[in-house]
Amino acid sequence: MTPAEIAPKDRLIVALDLPSVDAAEAMIARLGDSVTFYKIGYRLAYAGGLPLVAKLADSGKKVFLDLKLHDIGNTVAQGVESITKLGATFLTVHAYPQTMKGAVEGRGSSKLKLLAVTVLTSYNDDDLRAAGFRLDVSELVEARAQQARALGMDGLVSSPEEAGALRKIVGHQMALVTPGIRPAGSETGDQKRIMTPARAISAGADYLVVGRPVVEAADPKAAADAIQAEIVQALG
Ligand SMILES: O=C(O)c1cc(=O)[nH]c(=O)n1[C@@H]1O[C@H](COP(=O)(O)O)[C@@H](O)[C@H]1O
Question: In CATH, which of 3.20.20.70, 3.90.180.10, 3.20.20.120, 3.40.190.80 is domain 3-235?
């Protein structure tokens, strides 16, 4: 999908990192038409949130199921095959070759799009070294992007800091999905590789994943609307 084919509103993915299905449904009602794309990750998925994938999809919203799978290839393939039936648009797996190969096999001919998590946005070069890697963030992100493309993955999760370099490697063949988004003046929290929504779009990101700056805002709808306006402005 070329950037021009993505509806501007779909570019904001709000992470429903909330403690219960009730809290998530209240947030979805509050955000109303301002948000069309939601992410369900560990917190909500392990709190009974998986049935919300089909419910949201049936109501016309898109869902990014962020399970960040990583296991032996056979287990990943079988897990992804089960996940194809949930109704999500995107699923994350970590960008290890065996994992991505298993995910592509398990996805089969379903419409589920597979995203490879390159290097988590809470990591910098020192964190990678402490985890035993010899490459720095940009080298590892780029190496993993090349592997992800060769193995038939549909998109990459990285910080917007790497979006420009990744676009040069994968063109518009893969979606660039970027967390680590912080509107000007918002708390960084545990994120280390961050950009504002406008800068991320200008850097070439297709989708922006935003959690706390929206769901922990005093007025989540106003926060989402402000990000949507920034995206539209940056798209020019
Ligand atoms: O795969 C992800 O979505 C992800 C990858 C990554 O490298 N960094 C990252 O923050 N995320 C997710 O994106 C969301 C960001 O949330 P906030 O930091 O609250 O905006 C969280 O749900 C993270 O799990």
Answer: 3.20.20.70
